[in-house]
Specification:
The complex is a heterodimer. The relative contact order of chain A is 0.19. Chain A is an all-alpha fold. The radius of gyration of chain A is 12 Å and the shape is globular. Chain A is 55% helix and 0% strand. Chain A has a single domain, classed as Non-ribosomal Peptide Synthetase Peptidyl Carrier Protein, Chain A (Orthogonal Bundle). Chain A starts with a helix and ends in a 6-residue tail after the last helix. Chain B is an alpha/beta fold. In chain B, the strands form eight sheets. A ten-stranded parallel sheet of chain B has the order 9-12-15-18-21-24-27-32-35-37. Chain B has a six-stranded mixed sheet with strand order 4-1-5-7-6-8, with helices on both faces. Chain B has a six-stranded parallel sheet with strand order 10-13-16-19-22-25, with no helix packed on it. In chain B, helix 3 runs antiparallel to helix 7. The chains are: A mainly alpha, B alpha/beta.
Chain lengths: 85, 427
């Protein structure tokens, strides 16, 4: 089963139309991957769909990098009882 | 005698959404003034109290300067309790007289006149129980008083109401400054320009088809054309606007482009080009440049509106434009379909195509779908900023009211977000 990081990268690649292999954990969604504000909204929506979770918009949209997104999503999954292992 | 305005139950208030999400029904505008102001004048009451839905009581209390949801007003005087849907111009019930409860054909209370001597028979600790007991214990009469049924009724009646309000105000003439050349068509008896108004040169005021009333401190910039019947509210500014007949522009609005037979509640901007027709626009709305609404279908059939996002209601009118809730914002180039509902606090980023006819409150409409966007916190920040620009304060009680509206409107919004997600996944 894919890890949270792999799934985050896959979603990010689909929304931002990138090759998943280009996406690194330390990459910033905006500065390095070129996400515009509208795409940030799409990313949050698609992470929620991918993991079956509900995220607080303000908190989710303040996450800047891929690795922080992985941490954030893992924590939300834990809080909401979603098994991702 | 004390006049009490009692807001309608939620199922009735829903017919006046999205405008009534954040105000009692009597706060809605038609003609020069609100429905409540008209009822107060009609009854001739100086002692007035209000009962509003609990979720807006604190916010309304901060504005009302009269008792709000205070049960003590149910004691100590003769009472006249009125449903704000009753049309003031037709309200012919004597303020004083024996107790009497007027019911419509469905048995709903349109008014209750309760003599002080009968108050002892009724529970005065709760307005709901009070009305139920009044209906059960006091004489009932069948009332045929006409009522407002839907929010678009106000828009459709607006031109006629302006004419009636102009006659009732009994004012005409020029008390403000009118710079020349300015053309006034029709009879000058049908024009009133209040003190503090500035009408710039190259303005046409056309009172040929109805009266024009420009209220205090308004400013009319060059190349504006104002057709009567029309009311321009205090401190509003027209910026080269083509202001067609039948408009009520509330206070502190900025209006450009073409506007026809529409009501602007107040404190809203339609600064730039674009058409707005047969619309009702709430407070603190900003319509981006080239925002346009359709108010007439290509086949001239009657317009339907979805007030709940599901069930279309035939308005019976061939002309109905958009119903736009408080704090809604549209981007440049937004195209609103005939009979569109734009919820309060909705934020629209246009796609170039006509929008869906129902945009829920607090929705972020992005890339053609309803999303959660940046959430309500960001919308509140924007609302606060917009209000501060007009020296108004965003308060904690107001935020609490909006939090309640957010919860009330969540089912419709969540459904739209789910549809949006499906569309996003299919891309």
């Amino acid at each position: 089963m894919a890890t949270i990081e792999e799934r985050v990268k896959a979603v990010t690649a689909r929304i931002l139309k990138l090759d998943p292999g280009q996406i690194k954990a330390e990459h910033s969604f905006t500065v390095d991957l070129g996400a515009e504000s509208v795409q940030s909204i799409e990313l949050v929506a698609m992470f929620e769909e991918e993991f079956g979770i509900e995220m607080d918009e303000d908190a989710a949209l303040s996450v800047e990098t891929v690795d922080k997104a992985v941490e954030f999503i893992a924590e939300v999954c834990r809080q909401q009882g979603v098994d991702v292992n | 005698m004390r006049l009490i305005l009692l807001d309608s139950p939620d199922e009735v208030r829903g017919n006046f959404y999205p405008l009534a999400l954040s105000r009692p029904l009597w706060g809605l505008r038609c003609g020069f003034t609100s429905l409540g102001e008209k009822l107060i004048v009609r009854v001739g009451a100086s002692d007035v109290a209000y009962f509003v839905p609990d979720y807006m009581a604190d916010a309304y209390r901060a504005k009302a300067r009269r008792p709000v949801n205070d049960s003590s007003v149910l004691e100590g005087d003769d009472l006249l309790i009125v449903d704000p849907r009753v049309k003031a111009d037709s309200f012919d019930v004597a303020a004083n007289g024996p107790s009497e409860v007027g019911l419509d054909e469905k048995g709903s209370v349109l008014y209750a006149r309760v003599a002080k001597a009968d108050l002892a028979k009724l529970p005065t600790d709760d307005i709901g129980k009070f009305i139920a007991a009044a209906k059960a214990k006091l004489p009932n009469v069948r009332s045929a008083l006409p009522t407002w049924q839907y929010i678009w009724d106000l828009v459709l009646a607006n031109a006629e109401q302006i004419t009636a309000d102009f006659a009732a105000a009994g004012r005409n003439g020029i008390e403000g400054t009118v710079e020349q050349p300015t053309a006034i068509r029709g009879s000058k008896k049908d024009v009133y320009i209040a003190p503090g108004v500035t009408v710039h040169p190259m303005v046409v005021i056309d009172a040929d088809s109805g009266p024009v009333y420009i209220d205090e401190d308004a400013e009319i910039h060059p190349f504006s054309r104002i057709e009567g019947p029309c009311y321009i509210g205090k401190r509003s500014v027209l910026l080269g606007a083509k202001c067609r007949k039948g408009n009520s522009i509330g206070p502190f609005c900025r209006i450009g482009g073409e506007v026809e037979e529409s009501i602007m509640q107040g404190y809203s901007n339609k600064y730039h080009g674009g058409f707005l027709g047969h619309a009702y626009v709430g407070e603190w709305v900003n319509l981006g440049a080239l925002t346009a609404n359709s108010d007439l279908k290509n086949d001239y059939s009657t317009v339907s509106v979805m007030l709940d996002g599901r069930r279309p209601i035939d308005t019976g009118s061939a002309k109905v434009g958009s119903l736009i809730g408080d704090h809604a914002k549209t981007s440049i180039g937004t195209l609103l379909n005939t009979g569109s509902y734009v919820g309060a606090m909705a934020l629209i980023m246009a796609t170039g195509k006509p929008l869906p006819k129902f945009i829920p409150s607090f929705a972020w409409f992005v890339e053609g779908i309803v999303t959660k966007g940046f959430g309500k916190g960001k919308l509140y920040e924007t609302a606060k900023m917009a209000m501060e620009r007009r020296n108004c304060q965003w308060s904690e009680v107001e935020q609490a009211m909006w939090n309640a509206v957010f919860e009330m409107t969540a089912p419709m919004r969540n459904e739209a977000i789910k549809r949006g997600r499906r569309a996003m996944l299919a891309r």
